[in-house]
Design a protein that fits this description.
The chain folds into two domains: 70 residues; 34 residues. It is elongated, with a radius of gyration of 20 Å. 79% of the residues lie in helices and 0% in strands. Helix 1 packs antiparallel against helix 2 and helix 1 crosses helix 3. The protein starts with a helix and ends with a helix. It catalyses: Ca(2+)(in) = Ca(2+)(out). One of its GO terms (molecular function) is calcium channel activity.
């Protein structure tokens, strides 16, 4: 029950971060639209849009180099979820060994826990 609560909090946190990212892309698009058609012309906005797109590409490539995985939203959401779940388990002093031991002896298959990333990857797929 406590693990379910931790998972729910971690999932809400990951979704919240993704929604903020989505809102920032919408605001960026709206700002560029406004600046292109009302304030400046395309000849001024074209280099800005080019360099911002290049910067976003550099960030995605840096994410790929750091994580060795594709920069997809599903992978990013899973990584956010697992990181937040690990922090919540540590903060709430959740006994993961006991939880995994209880799961091992129950009829339900293991869902994963606050252990290592490899263990989380094997048992938990969002």
């Amino acid at each position: 029950m406590k693990m379910q609560e931790i998972d729910d909090k971690a999932r809400r946190h990951a979704v919240r971060i993704l929604c903020v990212g989505f809102a920032s892309f919408i605001l960026q698009f709206a700002l560029f639209f406004h600046l292109t058609f009302w304030e400046f012309s395309w000849s001024i906005m074209e280099p800005l849009a080019y360099f911002l797109a290049g910067l976003q590409l550099i960030f995605c490539y840096g994410y790929f180099l750091r994580t060795a995985s594709n920069p997809t939203l599903q992978d990013f959401k899973r990584r956010l979820f697992l990181a937040r779940r690990r922090k919540l388990c540590a903060k709430l002093s959740f006994d993961m060994d006991r939880y995994l031991n209880l799961q091992k002896h129950s009829r339900d298959p293991p869902e994963g826990g606050c252990g290592s990333q490899d263990q989380d990857r094997k048992h938990y797929d969002l």
